[in-house]
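Might you be able to review the protein record set out just below?
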Amino acid sequence: MTPPPDPIPGARLLFTLDPAVAYLNHGGFGAVPLPVQRAQQRLRDEMESNPHAFFATDLNKRIEHARRHLAAFLKADPDGSAFVLNATAGVNIVLNSIPFERGAEIVTTSHGYGAVDYTVDETCARTGAVHSVADFGLTATDEQIVAAITGALTPGRTRLLIVDQVTSPTARLLPVDRVVKAAHNLGVPVLVDGAHAPGTLDVDVSGLGADFWVGNLHKWLFAPRPAAILSVARPWRSKIRPPMVSWAVGDGFPAALEMLGTIDYTPWLAAPTGLFTMRTLGIAAVRAHNAALAAYGQRVVGAALGLMSTSDLPHPGGVGASMRVLPLPPGAADTQESATELRRRIADELRVVVPVHAWNGRGLMRLSAQVYNHADEYDRLAAGLPRVLGH
């Protein structure tokens, strides 16, 4: 198989990743480029040189300036957006802001993020609400996805639908625009979990029309960890409860969510440098590189597993995806314990970092691609994986 050309030569030099390790899990925690690391360190140095001046002099205005810059890129209303720690934190804030009575329903999908499911379950245990799951397969069409999700909604009972823009365990790009419209036709509010969307997709938060949208900046937009944007539609803003009550509680949304005392604000303030770095590399070039390399990795590793036909390889369901998944042989990672053990063996024996999950009783391997990755890293995984699996 011919690997795709590298349109961004030397990009790996922007990162401090261990050169001996093939890091194929950018979707897990991101990786911060050197210019962004340095921008954050300058902010930390400023903070420590005069803590009073940093925290007490126009910090709120600096946060607002950074937020407006990122919101403009995401086509979100800057006055209806707020910095939060990460996508899971944003989901928690939304769930804690909606009154759920006993018997009310919260709907997620079988492709949702595990921590979000835990959050929904905790909310249900606390309020008496019910957690329902819309189930659809790994290769479901957009029509089947929309039908499965709308079929799980109960008008008058479903108080919230949570749907991923790009799913974490299965790397599917879901038709969230159609899902939002269908849910709204049934009177159901929608929270879009866009954890993987900023940087990988041309996001239009306002155009999507969801009641809530949250996306990480530290995964694909090169921001320091943790940094995310929570966008809230106008009718809901007065109802949003901050994660803690602090000095800006009387200022309402978004200040009450952002001004939280002596937390570390440097990831938020340095986040625009991450966007600047991506723009310097070329947003279109980064997305093209990542999509082509992720597809190559899926093909070459899939071939090593005997998945030769296109129908054997789950497609992400859209153009521009930076992640792809591979179904593993039956028995290889059917439980989370065996999946974790396989991931550790791959890291120890092949020096490759790649996530492995048990999803619906079948092991899935998720491959990410970023500008620091090269085709030979996927070739290395393909060459060694059959031995690790015992083939």
Residues 105 and 208 are 23 Å apart (CA to CA). The mean pLDDT is 94. Residues 283-304 form the longest helix (22 residues).
